[in-house]
Amino acid sequence: MARFKTQSSSLVGAVFALGILAGAAVVLVSPGGLAITVAPPPTNNKFLRDCQIKIATCGLEVFNGIFKSAPVSANCCHRLVYMGKTCHDELVKSLISQPLFKGNQAQILASAQRTWDYCFSVPY
């Protein structure tokens, strides 16, 4: 599995994902001192908010599984599967709608599917 090139560091990506999944805006400071405010896509969608709540404690781990090919624990896999495929897909689509991920959408969607398939196969 491949890592994805973004316009910023992997730490920025991790903080960004955590902020998106928590529904909060995040202010990032680049090594050069440039402050960048990254906000989650605005959502009045109760479904997405409920998905964010269901995965919140494992959001960063699942994000790293998708974007950095990092292992996802059995606990977080079970939480992801409990959250449901539709929630997983919609949260990923919400993330990749951000300019930070422009140009990598197809790769990210494929990696998200691999992460889902792996987690779905983890026994309870």
UniProtKB/TrEMBL annotation:
Pfam families: Prolamin_like (PF05617). Residues 54-119 form the Prolamin-like domain. The keyword Signal applies. Keywords: Signal. InterPro entries: Prolamin-like. It comes from the Eukaryota. PANTHER family: BIFUNCTIONAL INHIBITOR/LIPID-TRANSFER PROTEIN/SEED STORAGE 2S ALBUMIN SUPERFAMILY PROTEIN-RELATED (PTHR31951), ECA1 GAMETOGENESIS RELATED FAMILY (PTHR31951:SF22). This is Prolamin-like domain containing protein. It comes from Trema orientale.
